[in-house]
Specification:
Length: 399
């Protein structure tokens, strides 16, 4: 698991004026929306005696609903993580500057709340994956969006790699191929159009596919026979995946998957699905039902992989040319690990129950002397850090 990326904490409608507890990167957070509509996210552990801030109340501060009150001794923290009240010291007491918890940047896009879990300055951060079909809060005219949430006992990296793996469709998804019944199935890697930018690895390719399985969707597509179709897939950052499906040259299904590792071996996934056909709200259930069938097919395979976590080295799996995008993703992760962004879960687990950690926030670059220890990280490698730092323009090749 990696710090310094944006992760989805929930739907915008789920974050209200009451504290909400979320677990990401094996750590707990508290989120709430103040009276001005701004969502805040803090590390969940009160620095006084370790209580869960999410078990407390939201109180007025500089803005209505702008502070969270600890349920144990009433300490209050604003949206920037600063302690504003220590009742045992009295209302006129001076609050020590060290009395603060980590606060994390928050943005809302596509109906979701994203939290930046890391300490990078804003200019250096990987952005939230762009959905070109969105301009503002709603999809562009001619597109219809749905959002689905899943939480499964799978490793997020295994999940991302599944999305990048064009070879699995033939065997995992009966509606996407021929269930292995054709002897002429082959992944034409020489046809791949590679995408490689600072934050993205992906490819576009062509494959033979049967007509759409759903009768109404098949009718809308106008295709009732097998055809060669073209699409693309890739990752964005550590835990976001884009998949562009074009069943015909007139209809498109564009999927954007935002994942948040909950713990080792458990992942929360938000699927934003865009379509440019069957645009009525009454067809949402049809599309979401098909997405669910496909998602559960992936889940059932991923829950049975051994080991549960992705192997530490590629030599423990036998790769083929069709795994080129999976390999590129692993190369990106390795570069980010060499920058010191990977959480040392061996150390976290070794001290579990004995130490309360926090994901380092941007505030730690400005102030020292924090009460909670920063989560242990795999030490950076200077040469790797220098190699990973230069960026390429974040341009995605068109299909």
């Amino acid at each position: 698991m990696f710090i310094n990326f944006w992760y989805p904490a929930g739907r915008s409608t789920e974050i209200t004026g009451s504290p909400v507890r979320r677990r990401m990167l094996a750590q707990d957070f508290v989120l709430w929306r103040d009276g001005a509509g701004q969502v805040h996210c803090l590390a969940n552990t009160c620095i006084h005696r370790g209580a869960s801030l999410a078990g407390g109340k939201i109180r007025d501060g500089e803005v209505p609903g702008g502070e969270v009150q600890c349920p144990y001794h009433g300490w209050r923290f604003d949206g920037q993580g600063r302690c504003t009240a220590i009742p045992s010291l009295g209302s006129q007491a001076r609050i020590p500057g060290r009395a603060r918890v980590d606060a994390y940047p928050v943005v809302e896009k596509y109906g979701l709340v994203f939290v930046f879990l890391g300490d990078l300055p804003e200019a250096e951060r990987c952005p939230v994956m762009d959905i070109p079909e969105y301009r503002g809060d709603q999809p562009d005219p001619g597109w219809r969006a749905t959002i689905q949430h899943f939480e499964w006992d799978i490793d997020y990296q295994r999940s991302v790699e599944n999305g990048l793996d064009g070879a699995h469709n033939e065997f995992v998804h009966p509606t996407h191929g021929y269930s292995g019944d054709r002897d002429d199935v082959r992944i034409p890697v020489e046809d791949y159009e590679i995408v490689d930018t600072q934050w993205v690895s992906g490819h576009f390719s062509s494959r033979r596919a049967p007509p759409l399985a759903d009768a109404k969707m098949r009718e809308a597509s106008g295709r009732t026979v097998d055809a060669v179709i073209r699409g693309g897939t890739g990752h964005h950052g550590a835990a976001m995946v884009w998949t562009l499906i074009h069943p015909t040259d007139k209809i498109s299904i564009h999927q954007y998957l935002f994942e948040a590792p909950v713990d080792e071996g458990r992942t929360s996934l938000f699927l934003v699905n865009l379509r440019n056909f069957l645009l009525e709200e009454t067809d949402d259930a049809r599309m979401m039902g098909r997405n669910e069938v496909v998602a559960f097919q992936d889940r059932d395979v991923l829950q049975d992989l051994a080991p549960v976590m992705t192997p530490a080295t590629r030599t423990k799996e036998f790769f083929t040319p069709a795994d080129i995008t999976v390999a590129a993703y692993r190369d990106k992760l390795k570069a980010w690990e060499e920058r010191g962004w990977r959480i040392d879960m061996v150390e976290v687990n070794r001290r579990r129950g004995r130490v309360a950690y926090a994901i380092p926030s941007p505030g730690r670059r400005e102030q020292s002397g924090w009460v909670l220890d920063s989560v242990p990280l795999v030490p950076p490698r200077a040469a790797g850090a220098e190699a990973a730092a230069p960026g390429k323009p974040a341009v995605r090749t068109a299909p």
